[in-house]
Design a protein that fits this description.
homodimer; 151 residues; mainly alpha; 3-stranded antiparallel sheet; 3 strands; 69% helix; globular; DNA-binding
Amino acid sequence: MQHNTQKVDELLCFSLYAAANAMNRVYQPLLENLQLTYPQYLVLVALWEKDGVSVSHVGSRIGLESNTLTPLLQRMEAAGLLRRSRSTQDERQVIISLSAKGRQLQKKTKDIPSCILHATGLSLSDAHQLRNKLSSLRTSLANDRDTTDSS
Amino acid sequence: MQHNTQKVDELLCFSLYAAANAMNRVYQPLLENLQLTYPQYLVLVALWEKDGVSVSHVGSRIGLESNTLTPLLQRMEAAGLLRRSRSTQDERQVIISLSAKGRQLQKKTKDIPSCILHATGLSLSDAHQLRNKLSSLRTSLANDRDTTDSS
DNA sequence: TGTGATTTAATCGTGTACGATTTATATCAA
DNA sequence: TTGATATAAATCGTACACGATTAAATCACA
């Protein structure tokens, strides 16, 4: 087993990129009858956990900014899943609130977690360990970007 | 620490999705002066390893199909990085060959691996372990999809 | 040897992602 | 109070991703 630096870049980025795309492809058929895309599902999961929050709050949860989230949330509003309204305290912010339809969708997703766990081929504790590693990787990568930027 | 199934889905998919996006954002400034996007860089890395292969061969390496690869490769051809030509043995296949420019680009990427490793905050051996886990995750997810499809 | 099934790319429409910029609102300092 | 700065979303243009479909070449096999 070679541990040269050259290959780490290539293989870590390949595997992360390919695994994320593969995960998307597993979710897609599970979300199809709910008329949801994978990022839209992530937004709903975040809102089921905490509702009535700003666009940037949703964004910090799933790692997206308004340039991606705004059109995504507009599509979800058009689908009747949520409402978007300016905050009265701070009119710069747009508050995202689940509709009854958006809230009810949670029930219909109850079988998804076990499907996904099965698809990963991981044990519950291995999945948790991997999640922790990926969370800390995300943090490191985001911090590196903050440190390196030319502001 | 709860190990309930409900949260695995949410947190594994969140962390994988967010980490992959974060990785993309770290690569982007490193590739900017080379006029490359992150997926284009992955294609080049695959070609540096093995050149003169079909579209689907490149696709199997990075986990994409022709619907995504064809326009991507067309842009890279327009940028003078590679050539696309029908195989004479099997005219269904399009063979991708690096140009001199595409080959020379490899030298200019030599510092990227160490930048990425630094950004991950991981040791070399931790990075390798994570790569192995993600590779096997990708395999499991892809196999699950093959098994589940309604053909 | 022909013909139906399979394989390989390409095409098309929709929905992300992202950097750069813009607009509106809020905050802070002199 | 006002002007300078900061913050929150939105907008815009480019480039992925993907399911579904199409077109052309090859294969299988009766």
